[in-house]
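Milestone M4 deliverable, item 7.
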Amino acid sequence: MSRSCEPSPTPAPAADAWRHFAGRYWAKEPVVVPGAPGSGLDAAGAHRLLVAAAGAPGPTRMRLAVADGVLRDPGPLLPSPTDRDAAGYAARLAGSRQLGDGGWLLTAEHALSLDFTLWSRVRDAVAGLWRHVGRPPLPVTTELAVGTRYQATEEFGAQPDAAALTWVLDGSLTMRVRPEHTGTEFALRATAGDLAHWPAGSTHLDDRTRPCTTLRLTVPARTTAALPYVGEVVGELLRLHPLPADAQPTIPHPAPADPDGRLTPTQRFTEPARRYVATLTGDGPERALLLRWAALRSAAGLHPAPPPRPGIALTPRSRLRRTTEILRMRAGAGTRVWAAHGHARTVTAPGAHRVLTHLGTVSRTTVSALAEACDLHPESPELLALLDELYQVRALDLDRNRESGSASDSDSGSDSKREPEL
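Output delivered:
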């Protein structure tokens, strides 16, 4: 059965837009919502990210697909600083002999993390939705895509555990979405400014007949989505104590057996199993998952987060401004977890606890005033190391708009965000 979906009515005013979207559309059926809340990213920003991703050696994964497959080495066909915008990039590829007259689709995963300002705008935008549908406890991944005259021939997103949010930033996009167990295919058409959404358990095919740029968020929406995530955490813990790097385990011939004929597994096989069970029964997985959850909570689920910036040398007269919430959580006796902008750390020193608590009550301060309030020396390595970490993840910034001579804390103003300890 095929069903054509007309665009939904314009949602309520901006202040209630996410509430309206959550109550009417979230996790129900595939839908296109014109005038829905924006993603915080526009087409120009998306193009800048794609150019940055093309030149980045990091974890960003780019894929240039054409009608007969994926180019193994797209090289000069990737966006470059000479492409003024997506239209200019498309015009350059239209003249490429390598592509001929066929269409193409460029996708980039994790490109959003290359620009902190753009990343934080998207983070703030989707946080409005999570307030109504719940914060995702697992990573929300992002994909930027630009292409033209390209029709997918294989169903993407066969991830039965995840829902999707797709913003069309420019151009138009046609999607054929098939929710599981329904026998229904939804034909969705979205244009610039529209938001398309479908619930977990859906597969889809995208069709771009002309240049189109999109931002797609994949949102884990079922408990089964946690299984590979937890397995990854357990695997990381096991690698902290690797087995001896000896030869590949082999079973002697004939295999050793008990007097009653039962085979006896060698220690090379039983030791990994013993370590696996010991890891699961210990508190390591819970601590590691708590640290990851705190980081995701501070990033509204977006993963990965922008990497830390270089540190800075602070002095007692340095004026600091808190730029965001600093999430604080208890993680056992004498241990606290703090997180900001997608990064989480643990602290055990009592002085660090006092610093984090005090920073939650002020928006601006100096190093010396903070040290005095927390009963620490202003040049204490414990204090300066913590402040440097907070600066690197952009939870603190230098307050260059204030005179450096003032040493008193100022009360939290309109730009201050407080986060209670959990």
